Amino acid sequence: xxxxxxxxxxxxxxxxxxxxxxxxxxxxxxxxxxxxxxxxxxxxxxxxxxxxxxxxxxxxxxxxxxxxxxxxxxxxxxxxxxxxxxxxxxxxxxxxxxxxxxxxxxxxxxxxxxxxxxxxxxxxxxxxxxxxxxxxxxxxxxxxxxxxxxxxxxxxxxxxxxxxxxxxxxxxxxxxxxxxxxxxxxxxxxxxxxxxxxxxxxxxxxxxxxxxxxxxxxxxxxxxxxxxxxxxxxxxxxxxxxxxxxxxxxxxxxxxxxxxxxxxxxxxxxxxxxxxxxxxxxxxxxxxxxx
Length: 291
Prior knowledge:
By secondary structure, this protein is an alpha+beta fold. The protein has helices at residues 13-24, 54-68, 97-115, 134-137, 141-148, 190-200, 237-251, 282-290, and strands at 2-3, 6-7, 30-37, 42-48, 84-90, 119-123, 170-174, 179-185, 210-217, 222-229, 255-261.
């Protein structure tokens, strides 16, 4: 089973190293990839583990993050709920989506009970229809949740009806493979990135199964179109890249580069694409790192 926790820290690599260490300390858990983004002030760790230890490794990561990351001082481009923002479980081999849902609920219950962090279940693990989509769970980010958590609409699925003072809240889910894919534009104009994001995302009639936002990259003086491809078999990275390139050409903008956050299944990566990298293939990393 794959687990891809996202943490609200991208400017202190030592903290992320300690969180990854907490994962690796659990028997059977294998860290495959770490992505640190100072502009989003966010990091993504990808690890795999057997079903009988994956929840323990995930909770260990959430616990360490709650000790190291203080949301009262956190600032970054990306919307987030807490020190560990999202904790998704993904079936890889020999497990089902139902297994992932069960483990997501087990992990969430432990996080709520032992760490006093309010938990929201999303995607396939959602207990309420209106919480299937992560963007609905995370709407308004932590700042709005602090005000609304005591209302019935924003009450957590498990855990206290108040955000943790320093660790905030967390969304725990089960889902199929999701590809986080960013295209960096050679401009500092955020309105252009947002315009392209609006054109290509599914919610505005663009590419099916594509979620997209525009973000500033302050450290580089550039902007990016940040995407989640939630069904790569329908809309893959090449199609998404080509759509952005078309819109960028129309607006007179050049593409600076691309970025894959985390890992992707081999079937999702076009070997001839400019963003191809063997080290970004999930199966390759499992074989190379886990043996």
